[in-house]
Automatic annotation (TrEMBL):
Residues 1-19 form the signal peptide. This is Transporter. Keywords: Cell outer membrane, Membrane, Signal, Transmembrane, Transmembrane beta strand. InterPro entries: TolC-like.
Length: 416
């Protein structure tokens, strides 16, 4: 019993090891979003913004400067008459100071700039999302090309098997003199043609797999099987990243207006200076002495010749430009959706006709097979009908893949 269990496990392992790898469309989207070089910029932009905001907030902290100087003057202040206890000033003078400036009020400029910087980062990150989202259309191009190749390959293999079985039947007919010997050669020529088509599909598949690998930055095995995607018709949510990008641009411009408005508000700073020098603050004391000064300083640019208003108006125009870009995008997006919806409906009707045509072609081939066996028609005539059936099935598979592609593109355009 134990040996049987071991053999069963080994059998299952051999099956799993020989199984072809599979890949879904959603996985391709995820791989591109994760591995595309630009995707790394999202985190980098956040780090950059954090450093820049931290640097802005440093402006709220005291500013401390150390200064030292030594000078020699050709002339110094003198007195017309000698005064008791007062010595003339030295022409060489020395001073070392520690200056401290503390921001008390600046109209909220630092906070406004920090918010603006955060808004700029979000806008840049959303631009990256827009670029990554646009990769989906390119992924679809390669993914569904591979899917169509798989379907065509399966049909060709099925066709090849049927032709091989017909060769056996023809050989039997030739042996008994019911069918001409050339019939076998006609079928063998068609088998060789099928092998050529399979070879062409093989190399086309390798090319598409390589293209998809480049786009997803992942090594995809050339034997990988891509699966037919499933679509959810009940998913009505729509969120194109471009719309969010335009909204973030408007928010950024609005914060820019606030930042400009704060730039003309009063600014108040407290300051202090402590030092040691010769002379100190008392110019009549010609000796080294410590000193200090403390105070408050206010600055207000009460008239800027309308510069602030001009800057505000320029930002208003920029917002109008963003709004027009958003409206243009929405119009073009609506047109693309209508075109894709029409493509879906057209392909669905073609599929219905394909199914009906295949049923008719199958009946014709059944009849042609019997006629060929009885010598009523030639193998070439039979092969024409057989090829027509194959082309009808090929058309069906092509339209099925085209329908999936159209539905996928519809979801991408609508932002689902």
């Amino acid at each position: 019993m134990k040996n049987k269990v071991i053999l069963l496990l080994l059998f299952l392992l051999s099956i799993s090891s020989n199984a072809q790898p599979t890949l879904t469309l959603v996985e391709c989207y995820a791989l591109a979003t994760k591995n595309y070089p630009m995707a790394k910029q999202t985190v980098l932009l956040q780090q950059k913004s954090a450093y820049e905001v931290a640097a802005l907030n440093k402006g709220k902290l005291p500013k401390i400067d150390m200064n030292a100087q030594a000078t020699y003057q050709s002339e110094v202040i003198g007195f017309p008459i000698a005064m008791s206890g007062v010595t003339p000033l030295n022409k060489d003078q020395y001073r070392a100071t520690l200056d401290i400036n503390q921001l008390i009020y600046n109209g909220g400029t630092i906070d406004a700039n920090a918010k603006l910087k955060a808004a700029q980062t979000k806008t840049q990150q959303q631009q990256i999302q827009v670029t990554l989202y646009q990769l989906k259309s390119r992924i679809n191009q390669y993914y569904f090309s591979i899917l169509l190749i798989q379907e065509k390959k399966a049909l060709l293999l099925s066709k090849n098997e049927l032709l091989l079985s017909k060769v056996k039947e023809v050989k039997s007919g030739v042996k008994f003199g019911a069918i001409l010997p050339a019939s076998e050669l006609i079928l063998e020529a068609e088998i060789l043609k099928t092998k050529q088509q399979l070879t062409a599909l093989k190399f086309e598949n390798i090319k598409m797999i390589k293209n998809l690998s480049e786009l997803t930055f992942t090594e995809i095995n050339s034997e990988t099987i891509v699966t037919q995607p499933q679509f959810n018709p009940n998913n009505t949510s729509s969120s194109r990243p471009e719309i969010a990008f335009y909204d973030l641009q408007n928010q950024q411009l609005e914060l820019s207006k606030i930042t400009i408005a704060t730039s003309i508000l009063p600014k108040i700073n407290a300051f202090g200076q402590a030092g040691y020098g010769n002379p100190g603050l008392n110019m009549l004391d010609n000796s080294f002495q410590p000193f200090y000064v403390v105070g408050v300083k206010a600055n207000w640019n009460v008239f800027d010749w309308g510069k602030n208003k001009s800057d505000q108006k320029a930002l208003d125009v920029a917002k109008e430009i963003v709004l027009s870009e958003k409206e243009t995008f929405e119009i073009n997006n609506k047109i693309e959706l209508q075109e894709m919806d029409s493509e879906i409906k057209k392909t669905e009707q073609l599929l219905q006709t394909d199914s009906e045509l295949i049923q008719v072609r199958e009946k014709i081939v059944i009849s042609s097979t019997a006629q060929m066996k009885n010598g009523v028609i030639t193998t070439s005539e039979y092969l024409v009908e057989f090829t027509n059936l194959f082309e009808a099935r090929n058309s069906l598979k092509t339209h099925e893949v085209q329908l999936s592609l159209a539905k996928s593109n519809f979801e991408i355009i609508s932002g689902k």
